[in-house]
Amino acid sequence: MGHREDLLEGAKRCLLEKGFLRTTARDVVRESGTNLASIGYHYGSKDALLVQAYVSLIEGVGERFDPGAGVETDQPPGSLERFREVFAGIIATVPESRAIWLLSFELMFQDERLQEVRKLLAAAQREGRAGLASMFTGVPEADLAPEAVEAEGRLYQTLLNGLMVQWLFDPDTATTADQLTEGLRRVIAGVGGDTR
């Protein structure tokens, strides 16, 4: 690996151990075996490096729960069965990716202290919506219509964030994939006040 990759891997380890706000450039340099100047040369700033490391961590989690990423699935894209399967896969990753989700929430609750970081993360969130829409619909990201990413991607992202709050806060009472799917089925069917 070169310095760029070493920095990225070192930054990922630091983020998981210390979080975003407590990780210093010196921490990353120590962890990666590089030097301070290489951060600026390869990434522009420590914050830009940490954002890239965070995005890489999130992408790694996403790859583990994507039914199309090496996991065979016979559930039709866009179906309730596919919806349940994807969310079951997401939930299955929570124990091993807990530190990454906690890091996500640390970043969400930062205000003006991290304005540049928030801009970079907003761009990454847009990409994340496309990835989520692709997982559920089976349509490659490059082929998704912008309105599908905006509507469906936002819906899945909102559900995912809410689900992660539940699983991080109290896994014993958190919503399961079956419960989430049944709720969606009832909404689609227009069950409304029917208690059947």
Question: Which keywords apply here?
Answer:
elongated; mainly alpha; 196 residues; single chain
Can you walk through the features of this model?
With 196 residues, the chain is mostly helical. The model has no long low-confidence stretch (mean pLDDT 85). Helix 5 packs antiparallel against helix 9. It contains 9 helices and no strands. Helix content is 71%, strand content 0%. 24% of the residues are buried. The N and C termini lie far apart (59 Å).
Classify the helix fraction into a percent range.
over 70%
pLDDT averaged residue by residue: 85
Characterize the overall form. elongated
The SSE order reads: HHHHHHHHH
Number of helices: 9
Give start-end ranges of low-pLDDT stretches. Answer: none
Strand content: under 5%
| Biggest sheet details | none
Rg from alpha-carbon coordinates: 19 Å
Q: Structural class, from secondary structure content?
A: mainly alpha
Tally of strands: 0
Topology:
Blueprint: H1 3-18, H2 25-32, H3 36-43, H4 46-65, H5 80-92, H6 94-108, H7 115-137, H8 146-169, H9 177-189
Helix pairs in contact: 1-2, 1-4, 4-5, 4-6, 4-7, 5-9, 7-8
